[in-house]
Amino acid sequence: MKKIVEYRKLLNVTKAATLKELKTIYRNSMKECHPDTCTTDEEARAAEEQSKAIIEAYHFLISVAPETLDKTKAEYTKTTTTSGILDFYMDNHVLYINFVEGSCYEYFGVPKNTYIKMINAESPARFARRHIYGTYLYRSAVKIVAEV
């Protein structure tokens, strides 16, 4: 969740920002800090770093926006109800769940004790269906290729 707060702060947007508002803010921010507008190499390097941070924040916030999640809700529901869990792990307060059919989702704000309960559960998939899927903010991550 810390990452989301930092990205919102960087782009100066609220939790309720729409995709259209995010796009407008992103474009205006990129115009302000574009490296081509700088006169010295040092300014250009600083502007390039700033623009990379803005691009990363924009793409992340787009992926967790309610409008984006609504568009992918059917695929997400199908994956979480029909596909088994291939692997799961937690890294930097983000829970990653890889599914057998190849999808991977990131879940934000999952407490460490909930993750430990998932590890110790008799059926991690059932635990996730009951305690994770409908509770925490998620986004689709890079799809993995299942080894046959």
Which of globular, elongated, flat, extended, rod-shaped describes the shape?
elongated
Please give the largest β-sheet: 4 strands, antiparallel
Oligomeric form: single chain
- Going across the major beta sheet, what is the strand order? 1-2-3-4
Unreliably modeled segments: 144-148
Counting helices, strands and paired strands, the structural category is: alpha+beta
The tally of helices reads 7
Q: Structurally, how many domains make up the residues?
A: 2
The CATH architecture of the largest domain: Orthogonal Bundle
* Record field, number of beta strands: 4
| CATH fold assignment of the largest domain | Helix Hairpins
Descriptive report:
It is built from 7 helices and 4 strands; from the N terminus they run αααααβββααβ. It is α+β, with helices and mostly antiparallel strands. It folds into 2 domains: 2-70, Orthogonal Bundle (Helix Hairpins), CATH 1.10.287; 72-140, no CATH class. Strands 1-2-3-4 form a 4-stranded antiparallel sheet, with no helix packed on it. α1 (2-11) crosses α3, α2 packs antiparallel against α3 and α6 runs antiparallel to α7 (124-131). The chain is elongated, with a radius of gyration of 18 Å. Residues 144-148 have low confidence and may be disordered.
